[in-house]
Amino acid sequence: MLIDDSRPIFVQIAERIENDIVDGTLAEESQVPSTNEFAAFYRINPATAAKGVGRLADEGLLYKKRGIGMFVAAGARAKLLERRREEFFRQYVQPLTREARKLGITSEQLMQMLGRSDSGTQLPEGSVAQ
Amino acid sequence: MTGTATSEVISVRNVSKKYKDSLALDSVDLTLEGGKIYGLLGRNGAGKTTLMSVLTAQNFQTSGEVRVFGQRPYENDGVLSRICFIRESQKYPDDFTAAQAFQAASMFFGGWDQPFADRLVEEFQLPAKRRIKKLSRGQLSAVGVIIGLASRAEITFFDEPYLGLDAVARQIFYDRLVQDFTEHPRTIVLSSHLIDEVANLLEHVILIDKGRVLVDEDAESIRGSAVTGVGPAALVDEFTAGRAVLHREAFASLASVTIEARLSEQERAEAGELGLELAPVTLQQLIVRKTMAATGAELAVVERENDPELEATK
Protein backbone atom coordinates (compact mmCIF):
# COMPACT_ATOMS: atom_id res chain seq x y z
CA MET A 1 0.00 0.00 0.00
CA LEU A 2 1.34 3.37 -0.99
CA ILE A 3 -1.20 5.40 0.94
CA ASP A 4 -2.60 4.37 4.30
CA ASP A 5 -5.83 5.26 6.03
CA SER A 6 -4.50 6.51 9.33
CA ARG A 7 -3.91 10.09 8.29
CA PRO A 8 -4.99 12.62 5.68
CA ILE A 9 -3.44 11.84 2.30
CA PHE A 10 -2.04 15.34 1.83
CA VAL A 11 0.06 14.82 4.97
CA GLN A 12 1.39 11.58 3.53
CA ILE A 13 2.24 13.24 0.22
CA ALA A 14 4.07 16.03 2.06
CA GLU A 15 6.01 13.44 4.07
CA ARG A 16 7.04 11.54 0.96
CA ILE A 17 8.44 14.68 -0.59
CA GLU A 18 10.19 15.49 2.70
CA ASN A 19 11.73 12.01 2.74
CA ASP A 20 13.01 12.49 -0.78
CA ILE A 21 14.57 15.80 0.20
CA VAL A 22 16.17 14.30 3.33
CA ASP A 23 17.70 11.31 1.54
CA GLY A 24 18.80 13.44 -1.40
CA THR A 25 16.54 11.93 -4.06
CA LEU A 26 15.21 15.44 -4.53
CA ALA A 27 18.21 17.74 -4.47
CA GLU A 28 17.89 21.39 -3.56
CA GLU A 29 16.94 23.54 -6.55
CA SER A 30 15.63 20.48 -8.39
CA GLN A 31 12.06 20.28 -9.69
CA VAL A 32 9.37 18.45 -7.75
CA PRO A 33 6.89 16.31 -9.74
CA SER A 34 3.71 18.20 -10.60
CA THR A 35 0.49 17.85 -8.68
CA ASN A 36 -0.98 15.98 -11.63
CA GLU A 37 1.92 13.53 -11.69
CA PHE A 38 1.43 12.84 -7.98
CA ALA A 39 -2.32 12.35 -8.52
CA ALA A 40 -1.81 9.91 -11.38
CA PHE A 41 0.97 7.97 -9.65
CA TYR A 42 -0.68 7.56 -6.27
CA ARG A 43 -4.20 7.43 -7.75
CA ILE A 44 -5.43 10.22 -5.55
CA ASN A 45 -7.52 13.31 -6.03
CA PRO A 46 -5.39 16.07 -7.61
CA ALA A 47 -6.70 18.65 -5.13
CA THR A 48 -5.37 16.46 -2.34
CA ALA A 49 -1.95 16.19 -3.99
CA ALA A 50 -1.93 19.96 -4.46
CA LYS A 51 -2.64 20.43 -0.77
CA GLY A 52 0.37 18.29 0.16
CA VAL A 53 2.68 20.21 -2.14
CA GLY A 54 1.15 23.49 -0.99
CA ARG A 55 1.91 22.69 2.61
CA LEU A 56 5.62 22.36 1.91
CA ALA A 57 5.53 25.57 -0.09
CA ASP A 58 3.91 27.33 2.89
CA GLU A 59 6.73 26.08 5.09
CA GLY A 60 9.30 27.48 2.68
CA LEU A 61 10.68 24.06 1.76
CA LEU A 62 9.48 24.37 -1.83
CA TYR A 63 9.10 27.43 -3.98
CA LYS A 64 7.26 28.12 -7.18
CA LYS A 65 8.81 29.15 -10.45
CA ARG A 66 6.03 30.79 -12.37
CA GLY A 67 4.93 28.75 -15.36
CA ILE A 68 7.44 25.98 -14.69
CA GLY A 69 6.57 24.32 -11.41
CA MET A 70 7.71 23.65 -7.87
CA PHE A 71 11.35 23.46 -6.80
CA VAL A 72 13.16 22.44 -3.63
CA ALA A 73 14.31 25.54 -1.76
CA ALA A 74 17.91 26.08 -0.74
CA GLY A 75 18.40 25.06 2.89
CA ALA A 76 15.34 22.78 2.82
CA ARG A 77 17.36 19.67 3.72
CA ALA A 78 19.03 21.24 6.76
CA LYS A 79 15.68 22.52 7.97
CA LEU A 80 14.10 19.08 7.63
CA LEU A 81 17.01 17.30 9.29
CA GLU A 82 16.68 19.60 12.27
CA ARG A 83 12.98 18.81 12.55
CA ARG A 84 13.50 15.08 12.02
CA ARG A 85 16.07 14.94 14.83
CA GLU A 86 13.52 16.41 17.21
CA GLU A 87 11.03 13.81 16.06
CA PHE A 88 13.66 11.09 16.38
CA PHE A 89 14.06 11.97 20.04
CA ARG A 90 10.34 11.76 20.71
CA GLN A 91 9.58 8.76 18.50
CA TYR A 92 12.56 6.55 19.22
CA VAL A 93 14.73 7.74 22.10
CA GLN A 94 11.95 8.38 24.59
CA PRO A 95 10.19 5.03 24.11
CA LEU A 96 13.60 3.34 24.14
CA THR A 97 14.60 4.79 27.51
CA ARG A 98 11.13 4.10 28.88
CA GLU A 99 11.34 0.44 27.92
CA ALA A 100 14.92 0.26 29.23
CA ARG A 101 13.80 1.57 32.60
CA LYS A 102 11.04 -1.03 32.67
CA LEU A 103 13.60 -3.78 32.12
CA GLY A 104 16.01 -2.38 34.72
CA ILE A 105 18.64 -1.41 32.17
CA THR A 106 20.84 1.41 33.46
CA SER A 107 21.91 4.38 31.36
CA GLU A 108 25.43 2.97 31.15
CA GLN A 109 24.19 -0.39 29.97
CA LEU A 110 21.98 1.33 27.42
CA MET A 111 24.92 3.35 26.11
CA GLN A 112 26.93 0.15 25.82
CA MET A 113 24.15 -1.51 23.90
CA LEU A 114 23.93 1.46 21.55
CA GLY A 115 27.68 1.25 20.98
CA ARG A 116 27.44 -2.45 20.28
CA SER A 117 24.58 -1.90 17.83
CA ASP A 118 26.37 1.03 16.19
CA SER A 119 29.59 -0.89 15.49
CA GLY A 120 27.62 -3.34 13.37
CA THR A 121 26.29 -0.68 11.00
CA GLN A 122 28.23 1.72 8.85
CA LEU A 123 26.76 5.20 9.12
CA PRO A 124 26.76 7.20 5.90
CA GLU A 125 29.15 10.10 5.93
CA GLY A 126 27.80 13.39 7.24
CA SER A 127 24.58 11.83 8.47
CA VAL A 128 25.35 12.69 12.07
CA ALA A 129 26.48 16.26 11.87
CA GLN A 130 27.08 16.97 15.56
CA MET B 1 -5.81 23.87 -5.76
CA THR B 2 -5.89 23.20 -9.47
CA GLY B 3 -6.94 26.75 -10.17
CA THR B 4 -10.63 26.03 -10.69
CA ALA B 5 -13.07 28.32 -9.02
CA THR B 6 -14.88 26.55 -6.21
CA SER B 7 -18.26 28.03 -6.98
CA GLU B 8 -21.58 26.45 -6.15
CA VAL B 9 -22.96 24.31 -8.99
CA ILE B 10 -25.72 22.44 -7.19
CA SER B 11 -27.88 23.57 -4.34
CA VAL B 12 -30.43 21.34 -2.65
CA ARG B 13 -32.67 23.00 -0.07
CA ASN B 14 -34.94 21.03 2.22
CA VAL B 15 -35.74 18.51 -0.51
CA SER B 16 -38.02 15.58 0.28
CA LYS B 17 -39.32 12.89 -2.02
CA LYS B 18 -42.26 10.81 -0.97
CA TYR B 19 -43.29 7.57 -2.59
CA LYS B 20 -46.62 6.05 -1.54
CA ASP B 21 -45.73 5.35 2.03
CA SER B 22 -41.99 5.80 2.16
CA LEU B 23 -39.74 8.82 2.29
CA ALA B 24 -36.93 8.37 -0.24
CA LEU B 25 -35.43 11.78 0.53
CA ASP B 26 -35.98 13.43 3.87
CA SER B 27 -35.28 17.19 4.13
CA VAL B 28 -31.98 17.01 2.24
CA ASP B 29 -29.75 20.08 2.27
CA LEU B 30 -26.60 20.01 0.17
CA THR B 31 -24.29 22.36 -1.67
CA LEU B 32 -21.93 21.01 -4.31
CA GLU B 33 -19.04 23.08 -5.57
CA GLY B 34 -17.56 22.98 -9.05
CA GLY B 35 -14.29 21.23 -9.84
CA LYS B 36 -14.53 18.50 -7.23
CA ILE B 37 -15.01 14.75 -7.19
CA TYR B 38 -17.83 13.87 -4.83
CA GLY B 39 -18.52 10.44 -3.44
CA LEU B 40 -22.22 9.76 -2.90
CA LEU B 41 -22.29 6.81 -0.54
CA GLY B 42 -24.96 4.82 1.22
CA ARG B 43 -26.72 1.50 1.28
CA ASN B 44 -29.05 0.21 -1.41
CA GLY B 45 -32.31 2.11 -1.15
CA ALA B 46 -30.72 4.93 0.86
CA GLY B 47 -31.88 7.50 -1.68
CA LYS B 48 -28.73 8.02 -3.79
CA THR B 49 -30.34 7.28 -7.15
CA THR B 50 -33.45 9.27 -6.24
CA LEU B 51 -31.28 12.27 -5.37
CA MET B 52 -29.34 12.05 -8.64
CA SER B 53 -32.59 11.62 -10.58
CA VAL B 54 -34.02 14.75 -8.98
CA LEU B 55 -30.85 16.71 -9.73
CA THR B 56 -30.99 15.66 -13.38
CA ALA B 57 -34.74 16.31 -13.73
CA GLN B 58 -35.51 12.64 -14.33
CA ASN B 59 -37.62 12.66 -11.20
CA PHE B 60 -39.30 15.36 -9.11
CA GLN B 61 -39.05 16.20 -5.49
CA THR B 62 -42.24 16.30 -3.42
CA SER B 63 -41.08 19.46 -1.70
CA GLY B 64 -38.03 21.69 -1.48
CA GLU B 65 -35.86 23.51 -4.01
CA VAL B 66 -33.20 22.23 -6.39
CA ARG B 67 -30.87 24.52 -8.33
CA VAL B 68 -28.28 23.40 -10.84
CA PHE B 69 -26.05 26.20 -12.13
CA GLY B 70 -28.44 28.48 -10.28
CA GLN B 71 -31.51 27.31 -12.21
CA ARG B 72 -34.29 24.78 -11.91
CA PRO B 73 -33.21 21.76 -13.98
CA TYR B 74 -36.68 20.58 -15.04
CA GLU B 75 -37.25 20.96 -18.79
CA ASN B 76 -34.31 23.34 -18.85
CA ASP B 77 -32.11 22.54 -21.86
CA GLY B 78 -29.62 25.18 -20.82
CA VAL B 79 -28.95 23.12 -17.70
CA LEU B 80 -29.50 19.60 -18.97
CA SER B 81 -27.04 19.90 -21.87
CA ARG B 82 -24.31 20.60 -19.30
CA ILE B 83 -24.94 17.52 -17.16
CA CYS B 84 -24.48 13.83 -17.81
CA PHE B 85 -26.11 11.08 -15.78
CA ILE B 86 -24.88 7.52 -16.21
CA ARG B 87 -27.27 5.18 -14.48
CA GLU B 88 -26.51 1.75 -13.13
CA SER B 89 -28.80 0.19 -15.73
CA GLN B 90 -28.59 2.79 -18.45
CA LYS B 91 -31.04 2.12 -21.29
CA TYR B 92 -30.21 2.65 -24.96
CA PRO B 93 -32.42 2.42 -28.03
CA ASP B 94 -32.88 -1.25 -28.88
CA ASP B 95 -31.00 -1.52 -32.15
CA PHE B 96 -28.17 0.86 -31.35
CA THR B 97 -24.57 -0.22 -31.51
CA ALA B 98 -22.16 1.26 -28.99
CA ALA B 99 -20.70 3.40 -31.77
CA GLN B 100 -24.16 4.81 -32.50
CA ALA B 101 -24.72 5.54 -28.82
CA PHE B 102 -21.43 7.47 -28.81
CA GLN B 103 -22.50 9.38 -31.89
CA ALA B 104 -25.78 10.35 -30.24
CA ALA B 105 -23.87 11.46 -27.14
CA SER B 106 -21.47 13.51 -29.27
CA MET B 107 -24.42 15.47 -30.69
CA PHE B 108 -25.84 16.16 -27.26
CA PHE B 109 -22.67 17.08 -25.36
CA GLY B 110 -20.76 20.07 -26.68
CA GLY B 111 -17.55 18.98 -24.99
CA TRP B 112 -17.55 15.45 -26.44
CA ASP B 113 -14.01 14.18 -27.19
CA GLN B 114 -14.18 11.50 -29.90
CA PRO B 115 -10.46 10.57 -29.89
CA PHE B 116 -10.72 10.08 -26.11
CA ALA B 117 -13.81 7.89 -26.59
CA ASP B 118 -11.92 5.86 -29.22
CA ARG B 119 -9.00 5.31 -26.86
CA LEU B 120 -11.38 4.18 -24.12
CA VAL B 121 -13.12 1.75 -26.50
CA GLU B 122 -9.74 0.18 -27.13
CA GLU B 123 -8.77 0.08 -23.48
CA PHE B 124 -12.05 -1.51 -22.44
CA GLN B 125 -11.85 -3.80 -25.49
CA LEU B 126 -15.41 -2.91 -26.33
CA PRO B 127 -16.89 -4.30 -29.57
CA ALA B 128 -18.27 -0.93 -30.64
CA LYS B 129 -19.99 -2.25 -33.77
CA ARG B 130 -21.99 -4.88 -31.94
CA ARG B 131 -25.57 -4.11 -30.96
CA ILE B 132 -25.80 -2.97 -27.38
CA LYS B 133 -28.44 -5.55 -26.47
CA LYS B 134 -25.94 -8.27 -27.42
CA LEU B 135 -23.25 -6.92 -25.09
CA SER B 136 -22.34 -8.52 -21.79
CA ARG B 137 -23.18 -6.78 -18.54
CA GLY B 138 -19.61 -5.53 -18.19
CA GLN B 139 -19.48 -4.28 -21.78
CA LEU B 140 -22.76 -2.45 -21.21
CA SER B 141 -21.24 -0.76 -18.18
CA ALA B 142 -18.20 0.17 -20.29
CA VAL B 143 -20.49 1.96 -22.77
CA GLY B 144 -21.85 4.08 -19.90
CA VAL B 145 -18.42 4.78 -18.47
CA ILE B 146 -17.10 5.86 -21.87
CA ILE B 147 -20.06 8.20 -22.45
CA GLY B 148 -19.65 9.62 -18.94
CA LEU B 149 -15.95 10.32 -19.40
CA ALA B 150 -15.86 11.43 -23.05
CA SER B 151 -18.86 13.75 -22.72
CA ARG B 152 -16.79 15.98 -20.40
CA ALA B 153 -20.06 17.43 -19.10
CA GLU B 154 -19.64 20.12 -16.45
CA ILE B 155 -21.37 17.85 -13.97
CA THR B 156 -21.20 14.09 -14.46
CA PHE B 157 -23.11 11.64 -12.29
CA PHE B 158 -21.95 8.05 -12.21
CA ASP B 159 -24.47 5.87 -10.41
CA GLU B 160 -22.74 2.57 -9.59
CA PRO B 161 -21.21 2.53 -13.06
CA TYR B 162 -19.15 -0.61 -12.59
CA LEU B 163 -21.70 -3.45 -12.60
CA GLY B 164 -20.11 -6.44 -14.34
CA LEU B 165 -16.79 -4.65 -14.84
CA ASP B 166 -13.90 -6.78 -13.66
CA ALA B 167 -11.14 -5.46 -11.40
CA VAL B 168 -8.91 -4.53 -14.34
CA ALA B 169 -11.66 -2.61 -16.14
CA ARG B 170 -12.58 -0.80 -12.93
CA GLN B 171 -8.97 0.24 -12.45
CA ILE B 172 -8.90 1.57 -16.01
CA PHE B 173 -12.03 3.58 -15.21
CA TYR B 174 -10.55 5.06 -12.00
CA ASP B 175 -7.21 5.86 -13.67
CA ARG B 176 -8.80 7.55 -16.67
CA LEU B 177 -11.20 9.41 -14.41
CA VAL B 178 -8.39 10.92 -12.32
CA GLN B 179 -6.26 11.65 -15.36
CA ASP B 180 -9.03 13.27 -17.37
CA PHE B 181 -10.36 15.16 -14.35
CA THR B 182 -6.87 16.57 -13.84
CA GLU B 183 -6.66 17.77 -17.41
CA HIS B 184 -10.29 18.88 -17.62
CA PRO B 185 -11.48 19.79 -14.12
CA ARG B 186 -15.23 19.48 -13.68
CA THR B 187 -17.69 18.18 -11.13
CA ILE B 188 -18.00 14.44 -10.74
CA VAL B 189 -20.55 12.75 -8.50
CA LEU B 190 -19.65 9.12 -8.06
CA SER B 191 -22.03 6.79 -6.31
CA SER B 192 -20.39 3.55 -5.29
CA HIS B 193 -20.51 0.63 -2.92
CA LEU B 194 -16.88 -0.20 -3.55
CA ILE B 195 -15.76 2.52 -1.17
CA ASP B 196 -12.25 1.17 -0.65
CA GLU B 197 -11.64 1.36 -4.38
CA VAL B 198 -12.71 4.96 -4.81
CA ALA B 199 -11.83 6.44 -1.40
CA ASN B 200 -8.58 8.07 -2.50
CA LEU B 201 -10.16 9.66 -5.56
CA LEU B 202 -12.77 11.57 -3.59
CA GLU B 203 -12.40 15.13 -2.44
CA HIS B 204 -15.73 15.24 -0.65
CA VAL B 205 -17.95 12.55 0.84
CA ILE B 206 -21.74 12.59 1.16
CA LEU B 207 -23.27 9.69 3.06
CA ILE B 208 -27.00 9.17 2.76
CA ASP B 209 -29.01 6.82 4.90
CA LYS B 210 -32.78 6.40 4.74
CA GLY B 211 -33.08 9.56 2.70
CA ARG B 212 -31.13 11.68 5.16
CA VAL B 213 -27.65 13.12 4.94
CA LEU B 214 -25.48 11.51 7.62
CA VAL B 215 -22.10 12.83 6.52
CA ASP B 216 -21.22 15.83 4.33
CA GLU B 217 -17.49 16.40 4.75
CA ASP B 218 -14.17 16.71 3.00
CA ALA B 219 -12.64 13.25 2.54
CA GLU B 220 -9.40 14.47 4.07
CA SER B 221 -11.02 15.59 7.29
CA ILE B 222 -12.72 12.20 7.61
CA ARG B 223 -9.49 10.30 7.05
CA GLY B 224 -7.93 9.47 10.39
CA SER B 225 -10.96 10.78 12.30
CA ALA B 226 -11.56 7.36 13.84
CA VAL B 227 -9.29 4.73 15.28
CA THR B 228 -9.73 1.20 16.58
CA GLY B 229 -8.09 0.14 19.84
CA VAL B 230 -7.52 -3.55 20.49
CA GLY B 231 -6.40 -5.17 23.73
CA PRO B 232 -7.56 -6.50 27.11
CA ALA B 233 -11.21 -5.41 27.44
CA ALA B 234 -10.81 -3.56 30.73
CA LEU B 235 -7.87 -1.54 29.43
CA VAL B 236 -9.54 -0.79 26.09
CA ASP B 237 -12.62 0.43 27.93
CA GLU B 238 -10.49 2.53 30.25
CA PHE B 239 -8.83 4.16 27.26
CA THR B 240 -12.02 4.75 25.30
CA ALA B 241 -14.12 5.93 28.27
CA GLY B 242 -15.86 9.22 27.60
CA ARG B 243 -15.23 9.06 23.86
CA ALA B 244 -17.67 8.66 21.00
CA VAL B 245 -17.74 4.89 20.51
CA LEU B 246 -18.76 3.83 17.00
CA HIS B 247 -18.40 0.13 17.52
CA ARG B 248 -17.42 -2.35 20.21
CA GLU B 249 -16.59 -6.00 19.71
CA ALA B 250 -15.48 -8.43 22.41
CA PHE B 251 -13.74 -11.74 22.03
CA ALA B 252 -12.80 -13.74 25.12
CA SER B 253 -10.98 -11.23 27.34
CA LEU B 254 -10.16 -8.96 24.43
CA ALA B 255 -12.08 -6.01 23.09
CA SER B 256 -11.86 -4.05 19.87
CA VAL B 257 -13.38 -0.60 20.15
CA THR B 258 -13.67 1.95 17.36
CA ILE B 259 -13.84 5.53 18.55
CA GLU B 260 -14.36 8.74 16.69
CA ALA B 261 -11.23 10.60 17.70
CA ARG B 262 -8.09 12.07 16.26
CA LEU B 263 -5.51 10.91 18.78
CA SER B 264 -2.59 13.11 19.68
CA GLU B 265 0.90 11.67 19.83
CA GLN B 266 0.58 11.81 23.61
CA GLU B 267 -2.64 9.77 23.53
CA ARG B 268 -1.06 7.25 21.17
CA ALA B 269 1.82 6.87 23.58
CA GLU B 270 -0.65 6.34 26.44
CA ALA B 271 -2.41 3.61 24.47
CA GLY B 272 0.99 2.05 23.86
CA GLU B 273 1.79 2.13 27.58
CA LEU B 274 -1.49 0.35 28.29
CA GLY B 275 -0.45 -2.31 25.82
CA LEU B 276 -3.19 -1.49 23.33
CA GLU B 277 -2.81 -1.84 19.61
CA LEU B 278 -4.17 1.00 17.52
CA ALA B 279 -5.38 0.34 14.00
CA PRO B 280 -6.47 2.87 11.40
CA VAL B 281 -10.09 2.84 10.23
CA THR B 282 -10.68 2.92 6.48
CA LEU B 283 -13.25 5.23 4.96
CA GLN B 284 -15.31 2.16 4.12
CA GLN B 285 -15.24 0.89 7.71
CA LEU B 286 -16.12 4.33 8.98
CA ILE B 287 -19.07 4.63 6.60
CA VAL B 288 -20.32 1.18 7.63
CA ARG B 289 -19.97 2.04 11.33
CA LYS B 290 -21.70 5.39 10.97
CA THR B 291 -24.57 3.88 9.02
CA MET B 292 -24.96 1.10 11.56
CA ALA B 293 -24.69 3.50 14.47
CA ALA B 294 -27.50 5.62 12.96
CA THR B 295 -29.65 2.52 12.49
CA GLY B 296 -28.82 1.35 16.01
CA ALA B 297 -29.81 4.69 17.52
CA GLU B 298 -33.09 4.55 15.62
CA LEU B 299 -33.82 0.98 16.73
CA ALA B 300 -33.11 1.93 20.32
CA VAL B 301 -35.70 4.72 20.12
CA VAL B 302 -38.28 2.40 18.55
CA GLU B 303 -37.58 -0.23 21.20
CA ARG B 304 -38.02 2.28 23.99
CA GLU B 305 -41.22 3.59 22.48
CA ASN B 306 -42.63 0.09 22.06
CA ASP B 307 -41.52 -1.19 25.40
CA PRO B 308 -42.92 0.64 28.42
CA GLU B 309 -40.95 -1.60 30.78
CA LEU B 310 -37.66 -0.71 29.15
CA GLU B 311 -38.65 2.94 29.36
CA ALA B 312 -39.46 2.50 33.07
CA THR B 313 -36.18 0.75 33.90
CA LYS B 314 -34.10 3.31 32.05
Structural overview:
The complex is a heterodimer of chains A (130) and B (314). With 130 residues, chain A is mainly alpha-helical. Chain A folds into two domains: 9-74, Winged helix-like DNA-binding domain superfamily/Winged helix DNA-binding domain (Arc Repressor Mutant, subunit A), CATH 1.10.10.10; 77-120. Helix content of chain A is 58%, strand content 6%. Chain A is built from five helices and two strands. The longest helix of chain A has 27 residues, at 76-102. With 314 residues, chain B is α/β, with parallel strands linked by helices. Chain B has two domains: 8-221, 3-Layer(aba) Sandwich (Rossmann fold); 225-313, Alpha-Beta Plaits, CATH 3.30.70. Chain B is 38% helix and 28% strand. Chain B has twelve helices and 13 strands. Chain B has helices spanning 48-55, 77-80, 98-108, 114-123, 137-150, 167-183, 195-198, 219-222, 233-240, 265-273, 283-306, 308-313, and strands at residues 8-19, 22-33, 37-41, 63-68, 83-86, 155-159, 187-191, 204-209, 212-218, 226-232, 244-251, 254-260, 277-280. In chain B, the strands form three sheets. In chain B, strands 5-6-7-3-8-9 form a six-stranded mixed beta sheet, with helices on both faces. In chain B, strands 11-12-10-13 form a four-stranded antiparallel beta sheet, with helices on both faces. The radius of gyration of chain B is 23 Å and the shape is globular. Classes of the chains: A mainly alpha (130), B alpha/beta (314). Chain A binds chain B through residues 3-10, 35-36, 39-40, 42-48, 50-51, 90, 95, and chain B through 1-2, 35-37, 174-175, 178-179, 181-183, 185, 199-203, 219-221, 223-224, 227, 265, 269, 272, 280-283.
